[in-house]
Amino acid sequence: MAREIRSIVDQNSSRLAHMKPDEVSSKETPDNWSKKEILGHLIDSAANNHHRFVRACHNAAADFPAYSQNDWVRIQKYNESDWGDLVELWSAYNRHLSHVVEHIPQDAISSSCNIGKDHPVTLAFVVKDYLRHLRHHLNDILPKQA
């Protein structure tokens, strides 16, 4: 899974960096996120999951708060941020997460994580779900390749 995160970053950082400012800032409706805000959401996801990955490795992930994604995006004003800075932060954070995932001890992969829900999941599930979520939102941001 660590290799997959690195591959996603390697394949998409340059594509993201070359997107036009008007393309990444525009919103279809005031309630929809711009591409900047979606990338900001992915940075928030990396930050939240970073905590989960590390804490699950020492059995301290039994009770995480839910993540209020709209509030996080609204408060941080991602649409007013520099696109290049966001791409750089997203890339660096995911490279670090790749390193963290690569070094998860085998005995921790089944550790329990409870993320604001009634039923805990394993750390393995959280990592796989992070990858699914990352791919999903990159498909929202990046233009389709021919």
Question: Which features does this protein show?
Answer:
globular; Four Helix Bundle (Hemerythrin (Met), subunit A); 3% strand; 146 residues; mainly alpha; two-stranded antiparallel ribbon; 6 helices
Describe this structure in words.
- With 146 residues, the chain is an all-alpha fold.
- The chain has 6 helices and 2 strands, in the order αααααββα.
- It has a two-stranded antiparallel sheet.
- β1 and β2 form a beta hairpin.
- The protein is globular and about 45 Å long.
- Give a quick account of the main beta sheet: strands, pairing sense, barrel closure: 2 strands, antiparallel
The helix/strand series, from N terminus to C terminus, equals HHHHHEEH
Helix count, per DSSP?
Answer: 6
Low-confidence stretches: none
CATH topology: Four Helix Bundle (Hemerythrin (Met), subunit A)
Distance between the termini: 27 Å
The CATH H-level homologous superfamily? dinb family like domain
Q: List how many beta strands DSSP finds.
A: 2
| Total domain units | 1
What percent strand?
Answer: under 5%
Q: How helical, in percent, are the residues?
A: 55-70%
